Amino acid sequence: MAKPPTIIEPIPFPFFKNRRKDVVAVTLQAFTPAGKDAINVVDVRLFAMNKAGANVPTPKGVSMSVNRLPALHQAVTKALAKAQELGLLDGDETE
């Protein structure tokens, strides 16, 4: 099997902004560990507004190999189904 291409530029997918204008974003990007080849990762991270008015990444988040995306998708899909079953969702996406 051929090696997958390495992501050249980060590809962001912002998915929500809160009242403080903090943003949670999902990003596909390359990560190069010291002394190793680059690997493609998915990063789910909180970006907070700094004093200059720019959103900057915080330590609050998780990065993992893109190979784990199917398992993450499956876990989030199960969590959504359970939240719906328990009546935890009221349709308001702003919280």
Characterise the protein shown here:
- There is one protein chain.
- It contains one helix and four strands.
- It has 95 residues and is α+β, with helices and mostly antiparallel strands.
- A four-stranded antiparallel beta sheet has the order 1-2-3-4, with no helix packed on it.
- A hairpin with a 5-residue loop joins strand 3 and strand 4.
- The longest helix has 17 residues.
- The radius of gyration is 16 Å and the shape is flat.
Keywords:
1 helix; 18% helix; alpha+beta; 4 strands; flat; four-stranded antiparallel sheet; 95 residues
Largest sheet: 4 strands, antiparallel
**Secondary structure tally: strands:** 4
Fraction of residues in helix: 10-25%
Alpha carbon gyration radius: 16 Å
Distance between the termini: 44 Å
The count of helical stretches stands at 1
Q: What global shape is seen?
A: flat
- Please give the order of strands in the largest beta sheet: 1-2-3-4
